[in-house]
Design brief:
Layout: H1 14-30, H2 34-50, H3 58-71, H4 75-90, H5 98-113, H6 117-133, H7 137-161, H8 167-199, H9 208-234, H10 239-255, H11 264-278, H12 282-289, H13 291-294, H14 306-312, H15 316-328, H16 342-348, H17 352-364, H18 369-393, H19 404-418, H20 420-423, E1 430-433, H21 434-440, E2 452-453, E3 468-473, H22 492-507, E4 516-519, H23 521-524, H24 531-542, E5 546-550, H25 559-572, E6 580-586, E7 601-605, H26 624-635
Parallel strand pairs: 3-4, 3-5, 5-6
Antiparallel strand pairs: 1-2, 1-4, 6-7
């Protein structure tokens, strides 16, 4: 849905820029690229808060962010955001807008996922009547489908509590199912009408509205299959007939999923597989529960399995499906296009019950206790990364202001000080004064006593007066790890760092030598207990004024070097005034250092290039999942 562009009265181009951000946010959201959508939505929200002529559009952005929070399983945060959006929308003159009605529906969906079925049914009923009364065909279609889904869930809840099979309760269940089926059939009919209308304009491919209509139709058929499977339990005498009807509905749901880019496709696959399983066709069912393994042509380019889908948005219904997947032995190790697996999502949305189901499934599938705990620790680390990158640092990288690096240092220090969970995973910002480094004569180790910690003062700056901070990105050139140093016998890397720092000060004459500090891993990461320091390494890059990469013929072959380079490339993408990046290269550009005699070096601006992480070298292969994760996160630091 494209937002209406209002007349711009103050700053030319602001409204158009805001519109582009929202279009990108909506497109990414439709494709379930939630992190990218949040990136653009945050930028659009910043514009609403800094440009007076955009203040009336803030509710539109909040509606988007609330939707993203819901899809990430963060329901309390989503409810608060959507309620704020509704309050802002209601304060505007005129009848309810299409977007206001959609936000209303989003709130109803969260109530549904939170098992507040009566509240969800009430909101969906009101949404349906308002949308229908204002002639909003798409909103009406979505509302009636949500209403049918809520009534199915109410029927299921009644049936699950009807252990004595009370005839009165059974009749109530059937009445609710009849109502749900009627509403879901209306959803299918309305969806098909929209699709057929839009199909006339498809030309070289389905329009966005046609894709939405196809997703709504698929969702309607999927829920109809659920109604029929429940009827198979309520009416056991006609069980096979009901399951046959469920299979027809589920097959119709899958039929048109080729143009759908969101989770509706994955859900359709699951519901069809579920019907096959209930009819005793286990091998066939497994092809739909594990489409990434079966290679089925329905396999979505989003690479989101049913287990991942039900882990993203937690509810009692979805936990039930997860238990079914665990019981049948579905694969729980698959990752989606964002690099996350089912366990990652249950940890990210703090749903401990779903987390327990997934962990139990991993053990059932043969994972050892040690491996299970390692996966859980990795998932928790990724959650903290996402929160620091996206919620803490990302908002600070918006245009405006020359003290961004100092703000990032302050916010990071405050976060570590106030959040024990993050403090247990990430190291504080540490550094070495350049004058101490220069006098030391070699690369210092963390135990050599040169390292200081960033201490937050009353003015938000370091108590010890650190001003300019250089991050050195380099590879270990000493292949003999028993020598316990990354440098060779000639102290080549140390000499290169001194040369680079001197060159940096020549190019930046305002830098005070006495306040210049450096960060390098051998000193600033505790070599006897490196986990917290290694985890914090990419975050440290954002807190440094400059990154200097010591380039040689193997630098861009090393995975950790590439992660650091990708991080600074993203930061430099459009805010060159915040973070500097230099590559130190041989004075003769064709000559590369390869571990032999000393060379003369010079600094040049960093060379932006495409880095393919999959083939990069690691000393410890177990680091690869985290390296791949961080390479994806680095892209989210790009200003938009």
């Amino acid at each position: 849905m494209k937002m209406e562009v209002h007349p711009d009265t103050t700053e030319p181009g602001i409204a158009a820029k805001w519109q582009r951000l929202m279009d990108k946010a909506r497109t990414s959201l439709a494709r379930r690229s939630l992190e990218v959508s949040l990136q653009h939505s945050t930028a659009a929200l910043h514009m609403c808060e800094t440009h007076h002529q955009l203040k009336d559009r803030k509710y539109l952005v909040l509606g988007n962010i609330g939707w993203i929070s819901r899809l990430n399983g963060k329901y309390p945060q989503a409810i608060a955001t959507l309620e704020e959006a509704l309050a802002l929308a209601d304060a505007l003159p005129g009848p309810p807008t299409r977007e206001r009605i959609q936000i209303w529906g989003e709130l109803g969906i969260i109530y549904h996922l939170s098992d507040r079925f009566d509240d969800a049914q009430r909101i969906f009923s009101e949404q349906y009547e308002v949308a229908k009364g204002t002639g909003l065909y798409g909103a009406t279609c979505r509302a009636i489908g949500n209403l049918g889904k809520a009534n199915y869930q109410r029927a299921l809840g009644l049936w699950n509590t009807n252990s004595n099979k009370d005839p009165t309760v059974t009749q109530q269940v059937r009445d609710l199912l009849d109502l749900a089926i009627e509403q879901l059939k209306e959803r299918v009919q309305r969806s098909r009408s929209i699709f057929d209308y839009e199909d006339r304009f498809s030309g070289h491919g389905a329009t966005t509205r046609a894709r939405k209509a196809a997703a709504w139709e698929t969702g309607g058929y999927s829920r109809l299959s659920l109604c029929s499977t429940l009827l198979a339990s309520v009416d056991p005498e006609n069980r096979e007939a009901h399951l046959e009807q469920a299979e027809k509905y589920a097959t119709s749901a899958v039929r048109d999923t080729g143009i759908i880019l969101n989770s509706s496709r994955t859900l359709a696959l699951f519901f069809l597989g579920r019907v096959f399983y209930l009819r005793g066709k286990k091998d066939l069912a497994m092809q739909y529960f594990n489409p990434h393994i079966s290679g089925d042509w329905y396999w979505s380019p989003s690479r989101c399995t049913p287990a991942i889908t039900f882990s993203k948005e937690h509810s009692s219904e979805h936990r039930g499906y997860l238990r079914e997947l665990v019981e049948i032995g579905a694969d729980l190790d698959a990752v989606d296009e964002q690099g996350y697996n089912a366990l990652d999502y249950t940890v990210f949305n703090s749903d401990e019950e779903s987390q327990g189901i997934i962990i139990g499934g991993l053990r059932k599938n043969g994972a050892s206790e040690a491996l299970t705990q390692e996966r859980l620790s990795t998932a928790r680390l990724r959650k903290e990364y996402r929160e620091i990158f996206q919620e803490k640092l990302r908002p600070l990288l918006q245009p405006g202001g020359n003290d961004t690096v100092k703000k990032i240092r302050r916010v990071y220090a405050e976060t570590i000080a106030s959040d024990p969970q993050k403090a247990g995973m990430f190291d504080k910002l540490k550094y070495i004064r350049y004058t101490d480094f220069e006098q030391f004569g070699r690369l210092p180790r963390s135990s050599d006593g040169l390292v200081r910690e960033f201490e937050l003062g009353e003015n938000g700056e370091d108590k010890n007066g650190v001003d300019c901070l250089i991050f050195f990105s380099y590879r270990w050139i000493n292949a003999d790890r028993s020598l316990n140093t990354p440098d060779d016998a000639e102290h080549t890397q140390y000499q290169r760092m001194v040369s680079a720092a001197e060159g940096y000060m020549r190019e930046n004459e305002e830098v005070d030598r006495e306040k210049l500090c450096i960060w390098m891993d051998f000193a600033c990461v505790d070599q006897d207990d490196p986990s917290k320091g290694v985890s914090a390494l990419p975050i440290i890059v954002t807190q440094c004024n400059a990154t200097i990469s010591l380039i040689d013929d193997q630098y861009y072959q090393r995975a950790w070097c590439c992660v650091e380079a990708m991080m600074i490339m993203a930061l430099r993408y459009s805010r060159k005034d915040i973070h500097n990046w230099y590559e130190q290269v041989p004075l003769a550009s064709t000559e590369f250092y390869s571990g032999g005699e000393a060379k003369q070096w010079t600094l040049k601006d960093g060379n932006h290039q495409y880095i393919q992480m999959e083939d990069k070298e690691l000393t410890f292969e177990s680091d690869r999942p985290n390296v791949m994760f961080l390479s994806r996160q680095s892209n989210l630091l790009r200003p938009v």
